[in-house]
Amino acid sequence: MGIFDYFKKKPDELALPEAPQSASKPAAEAATPQSIFTRLQSALKKTHDVLNTDIRDLFKREGRLVDDEFLTELFAALVKTDMGVGPANKLRDRVKTDFRGRVVQMSDVLAAVKQELRGMLDQPGQQQALQFVTSGPTVILVVGVNGSGKTTTIAKLCQRFKDQGKKVVLGAGDTFRAAAVEQLTIWADRLGAEIVKAEPGADPASVAHRAVAKAVEVNADICIVDTAGRLQTQSNLMQQLEKIHRVMGKVIPDAPHEVLLVLDGTAGQNAISQAQGFSSAAKCTGIVLTKLDGTAKGGVVVAIREKFAIPVKFVGLGEKAADLAEFNAQQFVDALFEDLV
Ligand SMILES: Nc1nc2c(ncn2[C@@H]2O[C@H](COP(=O)(O)OP(=O)(O)OP(=O)(O)O)[C@@H](O)[C@H]2O)c(=O)[nH]1
Fold first, then answer.
1. 292 is in an annotated binding site
2. Any idea what the CATH number is for the domain that residue 116 is in?
3. Ligand 1 center to 151 CA (angstroms)
4. What reaction gets catalysed by this protein (predicted)?
5. How far apart are the CA of 166 and the centre of ligand 1, in A?
6. According to the annotation, is 236 in a ligand binding site?
7. How many other CB atoms sit within 10 Å of the CB of residue 8?
8. Which of 77, 94, 121 is where one domain is finished?
9. Whose CA is nearest to atom 13 of ligand 1?
10. Residue 274 has what pLDDT?
11. Residue 52, marked binder
12. Whose CA is nearest to atom 25 of ligand 1?
């Protein structure tokens, strides 16, 4: 069911997305590091369970000799999370270097795996936090394939910015689908954000241009522009993204300041190939990996970090407006191996 269908339901049937809180959210409801970790932990439960079952199996008996058989089994357990062969090989090699020929406890191996994994996920030098400009609106363009969670992510970001007391303008740049415009309009109304839209079939670049101009006019802090879902193979649509870029830059010279590529976490390794085409054509500055809560392939974050020069900035942990967390390597690794150590 698309998110739009939820709005057609009666309020008491609305499991999601949740209605926004008032503009000034009570401090008690603000996300604490602990509550974010708990949410991350429950979102990663499927991936965690698959990995933990396999790793526990490796250590059925206390103390295990690290030999070729063990290393192959460890590799297989890691690869199942969809982290990719390269990262799984690296982790196996680390364990091989540290422990080969020795009898080890599970905690020894996991400490080494966790440390190596954190190093792989933490990429110093990358701007992981969203970059805000110091004057004028910060312009965020949101791109991705159909159904990856773009509109939901925009709503989540909008809620986050409104909670921070920021003024937000949304641009309904998915002019291919009337429902997408309507969906974003409902979100804008709920969240108290201004929205710029056009008739179905209108040029999305013109909507993007008007949205940025409106953000300047009303002195907004943030302008977030939606785009239609597209495949990297649709070269005309990919060129359209470049046009959207150009016209935004005519209003504010260095806009868009962030281009977020929304990837569906349930796609696992397929998410990687989606990212490859987009990251260059759309000059992406960050990735939002959605639906981590619905997948046992959460290890794909590792593969994305390994392959791309752009950081994972956020992860989607559910369908509600609050289910968006800034990506944090330490928390991710801890949530993945929670209970094992
Ligand atoms: N479980 C879960 N579902 C999500 C998440 N993010 C989005 N969804 C769901 O994914 C579906 C598609 O989300 P949309 O936001 O409509 O996706 P979109 O990319 O805008 O779709 P198009 O406009 O068709 O390209 C909806 O049912 C959302 O509720 C998430 O983090 N977790």
1. yes
2. 1.20.120.140
3. 7
4. GTP + H2O = GDP + phosphate + H(+)
5. 24
6. no
7. 9
8. 121
9. 149
10. 77
11. no
12. 146
Q: Which residues of the chain have pLDDT under 50?
A: 1-30
Q: Which amino acid, one-letter code, is at 290? A: T
Domain of residue 85, residue span: 43-121
251 and 294 belong to one structural domain: yes
- Give the predicted TM-score (pTM) of the model: 0.86
Mutate to test the pocket of ligand 1, among 42, 152, 181, 291 (most ligand atoms within 8 A of CB): 152
Q: Tell how far CA 41 is from the center of its chain.
A: 15
What's the number of domains the chain is made of?
Answer: 2
CA distance 8 to 14: 9
Does residue 126 belong to any structural domain of this protein? no
131 inside domain: no
Residues near ligand 1 with C-beta < 6 Å?
Answer: 1-3, 144, 146-152, 174, 180, 229, 290-291, 293-294, 316-319, 323
Asked if 265 and 271 count as a contact pair (C-beta separation under 8 A), the reply is: yes
Q: pLDDT tens for residues 59-89? A: 776 788 999 999 999 999 999 888 999 999 9
Element (H, E) at 169: strand 168-171
3-class DSSP state of 64: strand
For the CA of 144, the nearest atom of ligand 1: 19
* Residue 197 counted as domain residue: yes
pLDDT at 20: 37
**C-alpha 318 to ligand 1 mean position (Å):** 9
**228 annotated as a binding-site residue:** yes
Question: What pLDDT does 34 receive?
Answer: 61
Is 148 annotated as ligand-binding? yes
- Whether 333 is in a domain gets the answer yes
**Phi and psi based region of residue 198 (left: phi greater than 0; alpha: psi -120 to 50; beta: remaining):** beta
Asked casually if ipTM beats, i.e. exceeds, 0.95, the reply is: yes
